[in-house]
Amino acid sequence: MSALAHDGLAMTGRQLRRVRNTPGLAVLTQLMPINMLLFFGYVFGSALAMPGREYRSFLVPGLLVATAAGGLMNGMFQAAADTHRGVMDRFRTMPVSRAAVPLGQAVADLVVTTLGTIPLLLVGLAVGWRIEGGALDAVGALGLLLLFRFACTCVGMHLGLLTRSEDAAGQLGASSFVLPLLSDAYIPTDNLPGWLRTIAEWNPISAVTTALRDLFGNAPVPRGAAWPVAHPVAGSLAWSLALVAVFLPLAVRRYSRGG
Amino acid sequence: MTTTYAVLSEGLEKRFGAVHALRGLDLAVAGGTVCGLLGPNGAGKTTAVRLLTTLLRPDGGSARVAGRDLVREPAAVRSRIAVTGQYASVDGDLTGRENLRLFARLHRVRGPAARAGELLEGFGLTEAADRRASTYSGGMRRRLDLAASLVRRPDVLFLDEPTTGLDPASRHHIHRAVRKLRADGTTVLLTTQYLEEADQLADDIALVDRGRVAHTGSPAELKALIGSYAEAVVADPDALAKAAAVLDQLTSKEPVLDRARNAVGAVTTDPTLTLPRLVRELDAAGVPLLDASLRQPTLDDVFLRLTGQPGAASVDSKEPVT
């Protein structure tokens, strides 16, 4: 276990140094959700039943979670790109813990995500979003957000190692854009037709978004929703932990098998 | 004295779908020696290295590397080997120094930063140390690859085509490093397309052909199998027949005429045939001799004879005798 911690830490350092050496990508990634906040918040917000500022408060948690769900695409892309790097084979011929590389990637991603969330939160504050609940609840909300990000990264890494192709990762990544659209991240699900509402409410993004809105005190838990949304904190934990439990071991196994 | 083998494989098999890449590879590399794995593209050299370095699992056969069983103790093998090659390389997004520090840390070397500094210095990379490895030239990149393999001294070092496509200065650098490693007791298994490189560096050569080791021996032994080429260049075309008769007698092989150059030559495996003797006999027979030579065969010749295919470097270096 201590070998895994040692190697995992070294691999986390590797990923963080790579981000530092190529900072442009990280900056661009952060601009996307901010643009969406301004675009959705002012353009769509004016057409919805919710008044503008209320919608923007509703939207910020949704965008936080949608961005976290981007871990799917990011994890996939990085893992697929990594399989073509000669350095992976060097790692495989070294006495390094098999789980260190995937774990290092996911942990480094968490560090980057944590820092990357700050600009979105600041812009959110500027357009009227507030933490309206307790401080402890807010910390809990951020914890749930990061756990969800970690889970999405695990799923992404496994898919990336499976396809081994950056092109495929790009295509799948582009289509993963619809996942938050099929959830309550941008709109309330109450008005959706029954079957669509069921799908949206069983989308893990909905559970986490609802939990964040609840813990930040931005919006109440909707009535009559499916279980993960009706019990958003438990639902978020269950979704995230289940995804990690299934996909992290799969990613580790994929990685050790190599090519 | 019994020889300890750093690499010992018996009947290694590997299939990729319908392709039978290795068909029972038997390889024995004595500890502390440099072994050159030579063969045409597709012969199975790289597959052999990937198996022996735990990157692939064999479908059959067995092997011990650095005294450990390849299949049952891959972790123990990994802690005793290092690999540099077309595939096992460095992270292009990290600087040279960051790469070496990472590998030193993963190998639990004390003072990873100091070790990285030492290696950068030793491989002439100090100036480029803080640039991303992806900006390195081919030669610098290969030197960094090799340095990365040496953060902790391995028992067995695998070099897969370490100098393919490199300029002479970088090749020289790599050759010097290999000689130094051998002097320090590291066993080196080298695959190469350059017969000349194997000739210069290897104690033993294993010729790989169609997934098997076709022949093993020292470069000198392999050349002795082929024999030398005795040749006489005469002043007058009418003397060719006389010279051919002398060569026929000396070598017991059919002499080959090259009328364009007024030359005649024959292959000989007779160790008592020296150049002075060749000249004396031709002179005694009254041959108007302009030039005489007794050329050692190159590994290209060996390669061609033993596998029926020219080596990669042989295409323009061969002198056709017609």
Automatic annotation (TrEMBL), chain A:
<dbReference type="InterPro" id="IPR013525">
    <property type="entry name" value="ABC2_TM"/>
</dbReference>
<dbReference type="GO" id="GO:0046677">
    <property type="term" value="P:response to antibiotic"/>
</dbReference>
<feature type="transmembrane region" description="Helical">
    <location>
        <begin position="57"/>
        <end position="79"/>
    </location>
</feature>
<dbReference type="InterPro" id="IPR051784">
    <property type="entry name" value="Nod_factor_ABC_transporter"/>
</dbReference>
<dbReference type="GO" id="GO:0140359">
    <property type="term" value="F:ABC-type transporter activity"/>
</dbReference>
<keyword id="KW-0046">Antibiotic resistance</keyword>
<dbReference type="InterPro" id="IPR000412">
    <property type="entry name" value="ABC_2_transport"/>
</dbReference>
<keyword id="KW-0472">Membrane</keyword>
<dbReference type="InterPro" id="IPR047817">
    <property type="entry name" value="ABC2_TM_bact-type"/>
</dbReference>
<protein>
    <recommendedName>
        <fullName>Transport permease protein</fullName>
    </recommendedName>
</protein>
<keyword id="KW-1003">Cell membrane</keyword>
<feature type="transmembrane region" description="Helical">
    <location>
        <begin position="233"/>
        <end position="252"/>
    </location>
</feature>
<dbReference type="GO" id="GO:0043190">
    <property type="term" value="C:ATP-binding cassette (ABC) transporter complex"/>
</dbReference>
<dbReference type="Pfam" id="PF01061">
    <property type="entry name" value="ABC2_membrane"/>
</dbReference>
<feature type="transmembrane region" description="Helical">
    <location>
        <begin position="100"/>
        <end position="127"/>
    </location>
</feature>
<keyword id="KW-1133">Transmembrane helix</keyword>
<comment type="similarity">
    <text>Belongs to the ABC-2 integral membrane protein family.</text>
</comment>
<feature type="transmembrane region" description="Helical">
    <location>
        <begin position="24"/>
        <end position="45"/>
    </location>
</feature>
<feature type="domain" description="ABC transmembrane type-2">
    <location>
        <begin position="24"/>
        <end position="258"/>
    </location>
</feature>
<feature type="transmembrane region" description="Helical">
    <location>
        <begin position="139"/>
        <end position="161"/>
    </location>
</feature>
<keyword id="KW-0812">Transmembrane</keyword>
<keyword id="KW-0813">Transport</keyword>
Automatic annotation (TrEMBL), chain B:
<comment type="similarity">
    <text>Belongs to the ABC transporter superfamily. Drug exporter-1 (DrugE1) (TC 3.A.1.105) family.</text>
</comment>
<protein>
    <recommendedName>
        <fullName>ABC-type xenobiotic transporter</fullName>
        <ecNumber>7.6.2.2</ecNumber>
    </recommendedName>
</protein>
<dbReference type="InterPro" id="IPR017871">
    <property type="entry name" value="ABC_transporter-like_CS"/>
</dbReference>
<dbReference type="GO" id="GO:0043215">
    <property type="term" value="P:daunorubicin transport"/>
</dbReference>
<dbReference type="InterPro" id="IPR003593">
    <property type="entry name" value="AAA+_ATPase"/>
</dbReference>
<keyword id="KW-0813">Transport</keyword>
<keyword id="KW-1278">Translocase</keyword>
<dbReference type="GO" id="GO:0005524">
    <property type="term" value="F:ATP binding"/>
</dbReference>
<dbReference type="GO" id="GO:0016887">
    <property type="term" value="F:ATP hydrolysis activity"/>
</dbReference>
<feature type="domain" description="ABC transporter">
    <location>
        <begin position="7"/>
        <end position="235"/>
    </location>
</feature>
<keyword id="KW-0067">ATP-binding</keyword>
<dbReference type="GO" id="GO:0005886">
    <property type="term" value="C:plasma membrane"/>
</dbReference>
<dbReference type="InterPro" id="IPR050763">
    <property type="entry name" value="ABC_transporter_ATP-binding"/>
</dbReference>
<keyword id="KW-1003">Cell membrane</keyword>
<dbReference type="Pfam" id="PF00005">
    <property type="entry name" value="ABC_tran"/>
</dbReference>
<dbReference type="InterPro" id="IPR005894">
    <property type="entry name" value="DrrA"/>
</dbReference>
<keyword id="KW-0472">Membrane</keyword>
<dbReference type="GO" id="GO:0046677">
    <property type="term" value="P:response to antibiotic"/>
</dbReference>
<dbReference type="InterPro" id="IPR003439">
    <property type="entry name" value="ABC_transporter-like_ATP-bd"/>
</dbReference>
<keyword id="KW-0046">Antibiotic resistance</keyword>
<dbReference type="GO" id="GO:1900753">
    <property type="term" value="P:doxorubicin transport"/>
</dbReference>
<keyword id="KW-0547">Nucleotide-binding</keyword>
